Amino acid sequence: MKxxxxxxxxxxxxxSFLTAAVGVAGAQEKVYxxxxxxxxxxxxxxxxxxNAIRDEVARNYPDVRVDVFDGQSRNEVITAHxxxxxxxxxxxxxxQPLDSEAQVAPAMAAMDAGVKVVTVxxxxxxxxxxxxxxxxxxxxxxxxxxxxxxxxxxxxxxxxLMGPAGNMHSDMRRVGWQKEFFxxxxxxVILDEQIANWNKDEAMRFMxxxxxxxxxxDAIISMNDNMAAGALEATKAAGISDILAYGVDxxxxxxxxxxxxxxxxxxxxxxxxxxxxxxxxxxxxxxxKKEHEIIMVDCPLITQENVEEYIEVHRRAGNIQ
Amino acid sequence: xxxxxxxxxxxxxxxRYSIYLVLAAMIVISSIISPVFLSTLNITNISRQISIxxxxxxxxxxxxxxxxxxxxxxxxxxxxxxxSVASYKATGSLALAMAVGLAxxxxxxxxxxxxxxxxxxxxxxxxxxxxxxxxxxxLQYTSGxxxxxxxNYVVFGQSSVGPIPTPVLFMVGIGVVTWxxxxxxxxxRSLYAIGGNAEAARASGINVxxxxxxxxxxxxxxxxxxxxxxxxxxxxxxxxxxxxxxxxAMTSAIIGGTSFSGGIGTASGTLxxxxxxxxxxxxMNLMRVQSYMQQIVRGAIIALAVxxxxxxxKKREARKLGSRVKSEFQPGQA
Amino acid sequence: MSGxxxxxxxxxxxxxxxxxxxxxxNFTVKQGxxxxxxxxxxxxxxxxxxxxxxxxxxxxxQILIDGEEVRITSPxxxxxxxxxxxxxELNYIPEITIEEFLFLGREPVNxxxxxxxxxxxxxxxxxxxxxxxHYDPTTQLKDLSVSDIQVLEILKALSENADIIIMDEPTSxxxxxxxxxxxxxxxxxxxxxxxxxxxSHKMDELFRITDTITVLRDGSVIDTRPTHELNPDxxxxxxxxxxxxxxxxxxxxxxxxxxxxxxxxxSRGMFADVSFTARAGEIVGIAGLMxxxxxxxxxxxxxxxxxxxxxxxxxxxxxxxxxxxxAIQNGIAMLSExxxxxxxxxxxxxTENAVLPNLSRFIxxxxxxxxxxxxxxxxxxxxxxxxxxxxxxxxxxxxxxxQQKVLLAKWMISEPDILILDEPTRGxxxxxxxxxxxxxxxLAAQGKAIVMVSSELMELLGMCDRIYVMAAGRIxxxxxxxEFSEESIMKLATGGKIR
Lengths: 321, 334, 499
Known about the structure:
The complex is a heterotrimer. By secondary structure, chain B is mostly helical. Chain B is 75% helix and 1% strand. In chain B, helix 12 runs antiparallel to helix 13. By secondary structure, chain C is an alpha/beta fold. The mean pLDDT of chain C is 86. Chains B and C meet through helix 9 and helix 13 of B and helix 1, helix 10, helix 11, strand 18 and helix 14 of C.
């Protein structure tokens, strides 16, 4: 059995080398090879982005081949992927950083070795050396926060759901909420603030306990849509309908909840747009059309007024039937 | 009954039922520090929150008793759940959805069982492999995306029968099945025997591999049900569901007195262990304990509960040994 | 013999909740003597030795070494005071080498703070040479015999400057020839002035090696006397507190049909062409030296190991024994030689252990009928005089003899026609032995065929109707009752050469 698995693995490895070799051999008409190193294929936004990048390349760039590598939410794995991409002579590394510091050194080394690097959805602290396509996480939260400033009642009671401890997106979005909401509304009481790790089920569990402990809660302030949706499952079960709920990401689920009047607002972090811009920038750099650019993707606020537009986007992408 | 007899009886019961005493103490303390703790709603909450982990914990109990374990439970839960959700979305049949969930759980665990029994692989490695494969399959099938709009599928996890939430009913039902199985059936006895001493069990005519296969099979059924309930409760098909759930399940079992060296454990102990964990999480939320602090407290309480349980068992053993001194010296005391 | 007192334990008391394990025990060992300690299981030998070894603390009493009072609060203390213990069941790591074993836990350190392997190697060679042993220091323990390891244990004790060595049933797992060399070693230790406390159930050994014998019963010292003033009968009487009339209660019963016939049973590399028969009412012995293949044959017969060729006939009908279940279904039961490994499920209750092979008998509508189970187990326990506090006690908590009786009860419940007993009395006390012999007699009288494998020649001679002797994986010969003698067995077992 062990032998069999070993043989199978060896076979697979050989195959991948072979296809890589074919890719190089067929380079008469130049094919650009991009290594997309994803933060974690197990993270649903990251997976969405990876899919979008793959689709974008397949649809619009016949002379580009993209291979996706899974960073498994581990800095050392991402470093290894970067190093391997250099050794395997990829033309460009499209990197979705996990940690803004940890990826600086390997990314610099890759650039020094002559491989181009573009970061997408999060940046690295390299003084703008690497071209980047990103959305501003502070702004993503701030747009919701400015809306909430108007909506949350006087002396409102709110709960806050955070992503994993130390996660850049979670922390920066929290900063946005602080600056644009809490600093302006000293009357608001934060009943509790807990880490639900982006997870729907964990957020649901917290919310169940909160409903019981605090009774009336005016707003759920969540750093992503998934957790907001989880908390809303709990309010649904408790028969609560008059609660404000804010998220970030603009997932299909959140759009549907906003349409149904369950959720209040979210901001779109569009994987499609990130993918389109990132692949476009990468292509321009590969073909020499551009040297360097830092593109910030907009994060439109989604509320009941404009939600249909985004539902349509999701429907086209097949996320909603 | 004379008074020393009474003392001895109390001692005997307090050590045998030590974990229930821990649970009782937690309930008393929690109800003192939080006025809402003992409310019906909160008890319902706790039961619902622990139901899915506890179902996994019953499977883990059966396996650990038999000297096995399943590290793939969380991943298989996710795979069973998303495939079940997908089949519901495709056909609209709740019965089929449940059947698919069960089938996925069972098939994955049959594979676990075959790798463990036929190829003599340590369960740790075999099920670790399944953990990776099943998670990969769940992500592959969904492209890493959550499945939404699952409609009426939520009845499994979000409905109630009278005042009792459906997942809690499932938990109780599976608990009763586990209890009956362990306590009153031939398979139960065989599980304890092979976990306690597989060689001796074989020398008593027990088909060790068949028993191990059955243990995985039952675990598969439980994991499959847990997968369906999980997705239904969160109203989505989440390929990332249940990460580390197998460890929470094993923790409940171990706190409930299941011995990692095999041959010891009960369904009621596991239920108590699960409630201890559930109450701990609940009371900390009720008391607004900050996230990082919660982790520290949780770890400390797990260590304390297990130490107390082992300590009281040791005392009991010592008394037993005292009354009938063994012929052999304890190995390792030189 | 010098008369200097090496060790004195005075007025030792020890209670466990609900039980008095030792009361006012006085125990004195002289320098350079071998002091036998005997008593039934539960008499307090183990507790006393655990106190001496620092595992338990006495409730009252003093311990004096060389006339000075000492406190022994841990096995480490005991080691520092020169007390070493050699266990009945050897616990060692099979992969460890001789040199690693000898210096385990006290490895010399070189100037870099690492283990000084060079010094270990030199010291090991020195130690081995001093004892006239010719092992390579890098030999792994799994490649040595049990007696070799025992010798190493003693060496290790000596190299730690032990001058009181406790040996707990040191001969329970070694062959007769190895016993001789162990005894030579003991005599040499004695000559060096080392005091030895020798715990054993075997009368012949006690009389061969000890100078003084102390008998314990129910936590008290019954008597301490020079060995030459005692004889086996008096010791047994002292131990059990009553007279055992006849240690081997063999009865002649009418012999019936052939229940078991084995023809040409072969397992490559283990045994070859083994044929024998056992009739109803017979007790058939299988003798032989360690490694002659006795246990291997009966294991194959019971379906625990596969065999390559040969026929097994039960009541004249050929049976292919592929697994234990088949064997049980054909009325075969076997008590294994290694109680811990193949016998008991230690953490489970005596009841669960006793019904394990017969669960199907207690199933009613898919449910175990626990009242019936307990009733049947309880009846067998009573008949066999099993001493257990209750039916839910974990079998681990019982003495070796009682564990063995529970295992016998387990096979009685399955009502076999053919009972195979592999070393049924190993490591159990005289009282329990006697009860097992009586049970064998009773079963034979009921018309069962009993096959007994044993290393104790005396019990084979005392209990069997016929004895097959195995040597090097083959049946070397068959002895009828009138041909029985230790010499005739040893002659066949050693291939005709009597040393």
